[in-house]
Design goal:
Elements (H helix, E strand, L loop, with lengths): L1 H17 L5 H10 L24 H7 L15 H14 L9 H10 L6 E7 L8 E7 L3 E6 L4 E5 L3 E7 L2 E6 L24
Antiparallel strand pairs: 1-2, 1-5, 2-3, 3-4, 5-6
GO molecular function: ribonuclease P RNA binding
Protein name: Ribonuclease P protein subunit p29
Keywords: Nucleus, Phosphoprotein, tRNA processing
Length: 200
Amino acid sequence: PQGSEKAKTFVHAFLKRSMPQMKDEAIQDMLTRKAVILEHYPKKKTKQKRRKTKGFTAKQRRELRLFEIEPEQQRYAIFLPLHELWKQYIRDLCHGLKPDAQPHMIQGKLLKADLHGAIVTVTKSKCPSYVGITGIILQEFKHVFKIITKEDKLKVVPKLNNVFSLELDGFISYIYGSKFLLRASERSAKKFKLKGTIDL
């Protein structure tokens, strides 16, 4: 067909112009024996650097008072519903605190659980003034618990050198604060040794 002849002529002329150093015989040999691949160099895509969202610094958080509880909100009765939610959360986590449940399994789950809303009591302490403090945990930091007592007083209790107990459905768990110096978000990946230590 006439169209194919035009195509051959165009390709031959194109190759002759593109590769002037090649002879006609070599071009003809390339057309009859080999496929002609026209090289294509795609533009390299420049990777856009992801901008990390910068959060507030510790100083900015203090200035904005993000984690401070207003005095009018420091009432025990306000946080009782939070405690009820926490109890349901622990029951679901432990598949119900049944009498035949293995204590070390429950203990292991409690150590990794979120304690916001739990009622805890300081049972032992190197500082006698902390012993007997009971209340709902409102905030947990790496080194301290913030606890609201029944007297509507917000207590900041250090974890170090204190032993805490929490009770739920007859099951009592003891937490050695000295072995608990972690943020709440870090405890889920932490492996705890369930054996308590004699010293604080």
